[in-house]
Structures are given as C-alpha cells and as structure tokens.
Specification:
This protein is elongated. The protein has helices at about 10-30, 35-75, 100-115, 120-125, and strands at about 145, 155-160, 165-170, 180-185, 190, 200-210, 215, 225. It is an alpha+beta fold. It folds into two domains: about 10-125, no CATH class; about 145-225, Sandwich (Immunoglobulin-like).
C-alpha cells in the first residue's frame, strides 16, 4: 500500500470542502461498510459542525472589517446623521453539535477504515485518505574531479542538490573493495585520498548522497583518478 500524507488539510477552506464531500458520499457506503445510523449521524454532525464554525467565523471576520469602517466614519467622518453599525449575525449550530468535532470525525473515520466492507476506493471517494507520497527522486550526484598533483588530493566540484551529505569512496586499480574516505557537506571541496605507499597511484572515485547514515539515490559513475604524492 502506498504511503500517504496526513488526510486532514491545514487550510480551512479545504477542510470545508472535505467535510462537504464526506456528507455527500457517506450514504453511498453506509450499508456496504456497514455503519449504524448512530455512527453515520455522528460523522455527519461532526462535519456540519466544522463547516458551520469555519463559515460563521469567516462571516464574522468580514463583519468586523465593516465595523472598522463604521468606527472610522463615526469618529472621523463628515458631520451628519449617524451611520448604522453593521449587525453581527447569530449562528445556528447543527442539532447535537458539541465541542471536539474533529475528534468525533476522526473517530468516525477510523470506524470506516476498520469496517469489514471498507475498501481503499471507499476512502478515496469519501476523501478520507491523504495524497499518496511520491517516491523520492533517484538522486545521483553529478561531480567533476580534478587531481591536485600533491598529497594524493583531489578537488571535487558539483552540486549537493539540496542534500546534506555526500560520501566519497575510493578503489585502487588493483583493489576489489570500495572504501569510504570523505563525507562532504559542501562543494567544491579538496580532500585527500588515503593510499598505501608513497608512489603515484591510479584508481577510481565514486560518490553517493547520505541521509540518516543511509545511502540514498544511486552512485555516480566511477571516475578514474591518478593520485600524486
């Protein structure tokens, strides 16, 4: 099953749309799941409560902006008849509404997800699932290496591509195993390659990004290098 983001959005207009969709869809699945009438009604009431609370607050905010204009007119406006203050409306909450509507909705969502007749298509239709997390791009470092002609050093150029750590590995021409020798957090960088002996040596260098001590993405091609003492 694909990994998903949090199902509940931070944006309040998106929360309203989600709740309206749940109300619209829930009767299509009540018998299939199944849900009891009490369970169905509690989910609907929670959605209606969230919608009403958000919409009333938005309406009141608009009224409050009108009050600022009214206050300015009353205090600093032209002399004349008193301007009527914009009225604040009252809010009629759904029957059975209580505080903690999101907790009620979350409990109802879990009942749906655990129901014997639940399928992933049900969660998608009711908008109870977060968006699928796109697998990470297969990052591969794009590097340029230059031998420095001293101390077995090489200069490494390229981009970190937003990653924090780049691991470099070296394998001498006569060797079989690759050995990590540098962990870089910025480029360009000049690093020494550990070698055996004091004579010039040929081999290959490769790199890979690291996150949480684990390689991510893929290795670079093997770059041939000639190292000079």
């Amino acid at each position: 099953m694909a990994r998903r983001k949090n199902w509940w959005p931070d944006d309040m207009p998106a929360q309203v749309l989600k709740c309206k969709n749940i109300i619209e869809q829930i009767d299509n699945f009540t018998a299939v799941l199944p849900l009891t009438v009490a369970q169905r009604d509690k989910i609907v009431t929670a959605c209606e409560t969230i919608i009403k609370a958000i919409e009333y607050t938005d309406q009141s905010r608009n009224t409050a902006k009108g009050l600022v204009t009214w206050r300015t007119d009353v205090i600093y406006g032209a002399q004349g008849p008193l301007t009527a203050a914009p009225p604040f409306g009252t809010v009629a909450m759904p029957a059975g509404a209580t505080n903690g509507a999101f907790a009620d909705l979350s409990e109802g969502r879990q009942i749906i997800l655990d129901a014997p007749g639940y399928e992933e298509s049900t969660g998608e239709a009711m908008d109870l699932l977060g968006d699928e997390i796109t697998p990470p791009v297969n990052f591969q470092p794009d590097l340029t290496l230059e031998a420095q002609q001293q101390d077995f050093k090489i200069k490494v150029k390229g981009s970190m591509q937003g990653k924090k750590i780049l691991r470099l590995e070296y394998k001498a021409t006569s060797a079989v195993a690759w050995n990590p020798f540098a962990f870089l957090d910025e480029l360009p960088a000049v690093v020494s390659v550990p070698v055996t002996g004091d004579d010039p040596q040929t081999g290959h260098v490769r790199g890979i990004f690291v996150e949480n001590n684990e390689p991510v993405g893929s290795y670079t091609p093997d770059y041939p290098v000639t190292l000079t003492p």
